[in-house]
Design a protein that fits this description.
The chain is an alpha+beta fold. Strands 1, 2, 3, 4, 5, 6, 7, 8, 9, 10, 11, 12 and 13 form a 13-stranded mixed β-sheet that branches. Strands 16-17-22-19-21-20 form a six-stranded mixed beta barrel. The chain is elongated, with a radius of gyration of 34 Å.
């Protein structure tokens, strides 16, 4: 029986190659897109679900409030986790910390003196292998990180450094530390997590450091706990105030609080300061899921429309079968079987499309071939495809099986009224979705273009950044700078403690009007005298730092206009000379700069301070000299060669690498850029598939209006008037779809743009463009179908009348 259905289906497809190809290709493209988005969503929702007892695992977050600024941090002081475990052993089963000294890139030196710059290198607790889904493939988890100067490496790092050699017992040196670390284990991360690691050092190495033991303000350690069974997060959070009162620094404890974030929520729902890495957003999961479902619905709508249109060409076949004894139920089963078979043919083609496309999409979606052809995924998709084939075939099966043989043989078969209404509703739905996606895509691209090209208030496009945290450049900076400046392409060189607009620390200050011992926290960078001029910032009051006033400036600071206003000085000139006490001592404000964006454009401009680097020859100067910013007038090969040569003369323990500041800023919008690319692809696919649906309706109408057009042509109607007869009905449907799409798209666009402090003005252009595009595309689609009818000889159409 199944073989007969397959033969009939293939014979039917062969008779009408164009409609069959459109039907199959449209569904195949939609299924391919659906597969990719399903895999992407599955991956996004699976973050941190593979850990043992993940339902009881939380990240400890910290809030520090002061009068005019609130820091909501993903990390805590290094001591927080250790003392939580000590004070609450009945509540906490495990605790683990990840700490990188705020150095995202670390230089590793091997025993053969080879140097590697590595990301994701952390000091961590030995409990990581009990708490996280980290599998130790070599070594004993009880001892690999139980003492100072021990380290474990990932499988990829072990292979990179030592190939097929056994890495156990090898020594690696973290540049900046005097002693080497002994490799005691090799591990792999089995499941996807927001915690990405390459090398893990024992926290016991740094735990004895006095400045860490005594610190309860600086919060650079990401801290995770697993609560014991029957301990609720809410009840445990109630114990934080007493804990803070017991241990925290009097300067900040009144404004400090902690709360717990389920580890499963971090990747999609946490967007705090100092995240381990930029997280994704749950709203993108909703957007992509909606797009995938809409695309599939549109393909199913096309299937129905094309099947019912195609049924006009099969009228006599149905009549003959009915006359020869076929029952309505037999016809329904046949056409349902055809529908399901066509769906599976489309699915096979979709798998081929997906396989070919995956190499292009893998970098952005992080999906491999193994996931595409995973047995579970194939089984789920098989069920979905069967359901699609069945649901898409129900209406055409009942519609076709209801044909009256007498009407068919007279050649006067017409569509039922309900069928007309349904097909029109389906076309309206298709184009509504297509127009919404066109508008959303247009707005997305314009918002991204604005963010990528917006003036941040400083010159990002001319700035090269060198990471020098693992070097001694801080102690020999003046000589290093002089050598760099010897090339005419180097306009200026400056220092910054963090990369401007990418990261910063929050520093404590006491200013006019505050009692002694009370502190406010504001974002700040530690810089040198050339920073403001190198970055092209504008001094609007007072003066810039200057080497001429090095002694005076060592106890001075520059603030932005917003911080001056926050301190109560509406006129920036009034802020000059005012007291600002910092950890460095009694300072004063010597200058005010025009506001600049020190974070991504998701956030508004807030108060910000620039404090000058002091005590250059000691640890203070070296610690805050973490990045060198070089202002260049070109980056040709000669310039890069000069910079590398100077680097190698001064640094022998870190490879020469660089980054451009404008590229780093663009990385802040990676998620939005990915979304824009995917949305653009979806918009194109949706328009194409919607046009296929319109093609089906136009084909249906062309069959019905052949004689009307023939009569009008005999009566002298010209080409445009005849085209109007064919397009009028579809034009009305497009107008209705456009009218429906306006409020829907406006609602979603406003919701998305609300996440940005700086956003474009939508205006009317996106709607005008989308509406015009829909009309032009639809008219071309209809014309391609009606053209043959319009130019045909009326005598051939009307000869039976």
């Amino acid at each position: 029986m199944l073989t007969d259905y397959i033969k009939v289906t293939l014979r039917s497809l062969a008779k009408n190659k164009l409609i069959s190809s459109i039907n199959i290709l449209g569904l195949a493209i939609s299924l391919s897109a659906f597969i990719f988005i399903t895999l992407y969503i599955k991956k996004e929702l699976s973050y941190d679900t593979g850990h043992p007892n993940t339902d009881r695992m939380y990240r400890v977050a910290e809030i520090i409030k002061s009068d005019n600024f609130t820091e909501n941090s993903a990390s805590c002081p290094p001591n927080t986790g250790k003392f939580l475990l000590k004070d609450f052993p009945d509540d906490i089963e495990y605790m683990v910390r990840f700490f990188d000294f705020q150095n995202p890139i670390v230089t590793i030196q091997l025993e053969n003196q080879e140097l590697y710059n590595e990301k994701y290198v952390y000091f961590t607790d030995s409990s990581v292998f009990d708490m996280m889904d980290f599998e130790l493939v070599q070594g004993n988890k009880e001892t690999v990180l139980d003492a100072p100067w021990k380290t474990v490496v990932s499988e990829s790092i072990a292979k990179k450094y030592w190939g097929e050699e056994n890495p156990i017992g090898k020594k690696i040196t973290r540049v900046g530390f005097q002693n080497p670390f002994e490799v005691t284990g090799v591990y792999r991360q089995n499941s996807v997590s927001h915690i990405k690691t390459n090398i893990l050092h024992s926290f016991a190495t740094v735990d004895p450091f006095p400045f860490l033991q005594q610190n309860w303000v600086w919060n650079p350690a990401w801290t995770y706990i697993t609560l014991k069974e029957n301990v609720s997060a809410k009840n445990f959070e109630a114990k934080f105030p007493e804990f803070i009162e017991k241990y925290y620094d009097p300067r900040s404890k009144d404004g400090t609080s902690h709360y717990l974030i389920p580890i499963e929520d971090v990747h999609l729902k946490s967007h705090l300061e100092f995240e381990m890495a930029p997280n994704s957003d749950i709203k993108y999961v909703y957007i992509f899921a909606s797009c995938a479902i809409f695309l599939l619905i549109i393909a199913m709508v096309n299937f129905v429309n094309l099947s019912t249109s195609y049924s006009l060409l099969r009228g006599k076949e149905i009549g003959v079968r009915k006359v020869t004894g076929a029952t309505k139920s037999q016809l329904i089963i046949q056409f349902l079987a055809e529908s399901i078979i066509i769906a599976f043919i489309s699915y096979l083609i979709a798998l081929v499309i997906s396989f070919v496309s995956i190499s292009y999409l893998e970098p952005s979606l992080e999906i491999g071939v193994g996931e595409l052809f995973n047995l579970k995924m194939l089984s789920i998709m098989t069920g979905i495809v069967f359901l699609i084939g069945f649901l898409s075939g129900v209406y055409p099966a009942f519609f076709i099986s209801s044909f009256d043989p007498l009407v068919v043989f007279k050649g006067k078969m017409i569509s039922q009224g309900s069928g007309k209404v349904l097909r029109k509703v389906l076309v309206i739905a298709q184009f509504t979705i297509a127009i919404v996606l066109i508008i959303f895509t247009y707005v997305t691209y314009n918002q991204l273009a604005m963010m990528n090209n917006k003036d941040y208030g400083f010159d990002a496009d001319k700035i090269m950044v060198l990471d020098v945290a693992n070097t001694r450049i801080g102690q020999t900076y003046d000589a290093f700078r002089t050598q760099l400046m010897s090339n005419v392409a180097v306009e200026n060189v400056t220092v910054m403690s963090d990369i401007l607009a990418v990261n910063n620390n929050n520093h404590e200050f006491n200013h006019e009007g505050m009692a002694a011992g009370v502190w406010n926290y504001y974002p700040a960078l530690v810089v040198d005298e050339e920073f403001v001029s190198s970055l092209g910032m504008e001094i609007i009051a007072g003066r810039d730092y200057s080497v001429k006033y090095a002694r005076e400036d060592s106890m001075s600071m520059i603030v932005n206009k917003t911080l001056a206003k926050t301190l109560g000085y509406a006129n920036p000139e009034d802020a000059i000379g005012q007291r600002m006490v910092s950890r460095g001592g009694n300072e004063k404000i010597i200058g005010v700069v025009e506001d600049f964006n020190y974070k991504s454009l998701h956030s508004p401009i807030g108060p910000f301070a620039l404090d000058v680097r002091r005590n250059r020859q000691n640890n203070n100067g070296n610690f805050f000299t973490r990045h060198i910013a070089i202002r260049l007038n070109n980056t040709d090969k000669a310039t890069l060669a000069h910079l590398e040569e100077v680097w190698k003369k001064n640094v022998n323990n870190v490879p020469f690498t660089y980054k451009m500041l404008d590229d780093e800023l663009k990385k802040l919008y990676q998620e939005e850029n990915n979304m824009g690319s995917i949305l653009g692809t979806f918009a194109i696919l949706t328009v194409i598939i919607a046009c296929l649906g319109l093609f089906a309706l136009a084909s249906f109408i062309a069959q019905q209006k052949m004689k009307e057009i023939g009569i009008r042509k005999v009566l002298g109607a010209n080409f445009l008037k005849l085209f109007y007869v064919g397009y009028k009905e579809q034009f009305i449907l497009i107008v209705i779809a456009f009218t429906s799409a306006i409020p829907i798209s406006y609602y979603f666009i406003e919701g998305w743009l609300d996440d940005f402090a700086y956003r474009i003005n939508i205006g009317f252009w996106p709607y005008i463009l989308a509406g015009t595009l829909a009309i032009v595309i639809s008219s071309i689609t209809v014309l391609s179908n009606f053209y043959k009818v319009i130019i045909s000889n009326p005598s051939e159409v009307l000869r039976d009348e």
